[in-house]
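queue> pop job 88
queue> type: inverse folding (structure -> sequence)
queue> payload:
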């Protein structure tokens, strides 16, 4: 099992894989990528403007086709096309540098097409917001079917994903089939929180996680004693940190063991491991609201789980891909070994036998998605 490597650099291939694993169509993806294949050979940063042009062009075409479907009363067909357009807008936007022309407008199109597409398609998902430190943060609430109270899982972003990307991973549907609702959150430093509210990332993830626990516990169809939390990529730091400091979270899991992201930054200075996005250093300074490189390293200093995980006293799952090119495999073992007070801890390394060996299953997300969903079904009931 391996990443689909259409381009000659990892970062561009990762974006293609995100689109494929989120519901993109291979024919459309090849049509978008063929005109820019040569540019990718010049490096991960050069040519990202051309990447946006091609991917937005395809998304715009799908929006036009969806309008034709709607005019004929075919809402399901329109909804499917709009959701796919949202994926392409999202991938196009995440490939751009901070402040790049057209980035803000493309993000707006991604939000709009997602909202319209899921509504037309009849997906059980809605956007919700809560006040947070004088501003607001948003999430997507995917309700499990059936009457009565049900468990719920908070699902948080990594460094560069959005709540829409989380939803398109299929995790909310997988959990819903197991009787569990999902809250996909744009935490500070990601998605709407960063782009629309100018809320930078913080290493104290319990600040925003606790606010969402408050919201969940106020919902009539949520069991307040059965709230779980997971995170993808850099969420592999945020989620365990939040579980460690928020005692109302009853079970946790990570999709990628991002045990010491502060240390990862030193490795990236030495070009050890792959970057997740182009224009990497500009991106992380934006995410953390840093004035310069020195300020970023100071703000990122707290992004480590060393001395934190022994606070976790609930079931906790650590997953990692054996061939993760961004985050070292040894971090998964380090996190697992430090969960000394968890009454039920588990380590799952995805190998070539099944797939999901790349960073957060970029080669095949189904194995990580189903394994984590089963974990919450077992531990939250």
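queue> result:
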């Amino acid at each position: 099992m391996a990443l689909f490597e259409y381009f000659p650099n990892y970062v561009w291939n990762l974006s293609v894989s995100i689109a494929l694993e989120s519901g993109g169509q291979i024919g459309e993806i090849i049509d978008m990528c063929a005109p820019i294949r040569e540019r990718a050979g010049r490096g991960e940063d050069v040519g990202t403007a051309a990447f946006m042009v091609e991917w937005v062009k395809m998304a715009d075409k799908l929006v036009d086709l969806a309008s034709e479907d709607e005019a004929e009363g075919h809402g399901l067909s329109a909804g499917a096309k709009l959701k796919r357009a949202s994926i392409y807008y999202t991938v196009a936007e995440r490939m751009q540098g901070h402040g790049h022309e057209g980035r803000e407008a493309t993000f707006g199109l991604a939000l709009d097409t997602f909202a319209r597409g899921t509504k037309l398609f009849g997906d059980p998902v809605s956007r919700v917001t809560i006040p947070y430190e004088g501003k607001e943060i948003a999430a997507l609430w995917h309700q499990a079917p059936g009457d009565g109270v049900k468990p719920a899982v908070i699902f948080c972003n990594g460094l560069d994903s959005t709540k829409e990307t989380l939803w398109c991973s299929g995790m909310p549907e997988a959990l819903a089939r197991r009787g569990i609702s999902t809250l996909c959150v744009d935490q500070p430093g990601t998605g709407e929180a960063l782009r629309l509210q100018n809320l930078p990332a913080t290493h104290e993830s319990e600040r925003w996680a606790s606010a969402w626990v408050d919201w969940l516990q106020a919902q009539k169809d949520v069991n307040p004693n059965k709230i779980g939390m997971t995170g993808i990529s850099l969420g592999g730091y945020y989620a365990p940190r939040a579980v460690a400091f928020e005692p109302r979270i009853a079970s946790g899991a990570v999709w990628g063991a991002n045990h010491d992201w502060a240390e990862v930054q030193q490795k990236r200075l030495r070009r050890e491991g792959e970057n997740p996005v182009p224009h990497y250093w500009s991106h992380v300074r934006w995410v953390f609201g840093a004035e310069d490189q020195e300020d970023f390293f100071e703000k990122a200093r707290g992004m480590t789980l060393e001395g934190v995980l022994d606070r976790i006293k609930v079931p906790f799952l650590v997953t990692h891909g054996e061939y993760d090119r961004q985050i070292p495999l040894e971090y998964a073992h380090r996190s697992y070994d430090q969960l000394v007070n968890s009454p039920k801890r588990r380590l799952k390394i995805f190998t070539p036998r099944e797939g999901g060996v790349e960073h957060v299953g970029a080669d095949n997300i189904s194995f990580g998605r189903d394994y984590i969903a089963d974990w919450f079904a077992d531990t939250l009931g």
